[in-house]
Amino acid sequence: MERNPRDGPGPVHVPFGYIVANEKWRGSQLTQGMQGKIKLVFEDGLAPVDFYLSSRSCILYITEADLVAGNSYRKRLVVVRNSSNLQGIVVVEKTQMSEQYFPAIQKFTVLDLGMVLLPVASQMEASCLIIQLVQEQTKDPSKNPFLGKKRALISEPSLLRTVQQIPGVGKVKAPLLLQKFPSIQQLSNASIRELEQVVGQAVAQQIHAFFTQSR
What we know:
This protein is an alpha/beta fold. Helix content is 42%, strand content 14%. The protein has a six-stranded mixed beta sheet with strand order 2-1-3-4-5-6, sandwiched between helices. Strand 5, helix 4 and strand 6 (116-120) form a beta-alpha-beta unit.
C-alpha cells in the first residue's frame, strides 16, 4: 500500500469480516489471540492506526509502555481525531504499572478529543474485545441497533470487565447494562434517557459522558 504516514490516515479497503493490522503487530500476543477467530491482513504504512475494522472505523492501541513513556501517544490520537473520514476507538492497557497514568489519557481522549476509550487488562483481553467489535459489524452491516439484541454476550469475560471499568458502573450494574445493550457499540450509542431506565440518572450521565463523541 503506497501511502505516506505523514499525510495522515487515509481510506483503507477492509474485506468484509477481516481486520487490516499494522505490520508492527505481526507475531504479537495481541494478534496471536485473534488467529483462528478472525481473518487478519498485515500491511505497512498504516501509521498512526494500529487496526482497521472497516474503511471508516479504526483502533489506536496504547500499550502499557506507551503510557509510562510519556505523552508521545497524543499526536497519534489527534491525527485520527482530525481525520474527516475515520472514527477512531482508543484501546488502552490499564495495568498495575500504568494505572497511575490512566486518568490523564482518559481525560485527554474522552473529554478533550471526544473519542471512545476502552481499557483492557492485557493484550489477550484486547484481542477478545477487537474480535467482538468486528463481529458486531459483520452481524449487523446495516447498523440496525435491534439486530444485535438476539444474544446478550454477558458470558464474554473481556466485554463484561470492560463495561465494569466504565465510571460509575461496577460489577452489579455491568450485567444489567449488557442485558439491555449487548454490545459496546449499542452501549456507546445509548441516550441518557435509555441508560436511566437501567442504572438511574447519575450513573447514566457518567456513562454517557464517558462515551460522548463530537459529532
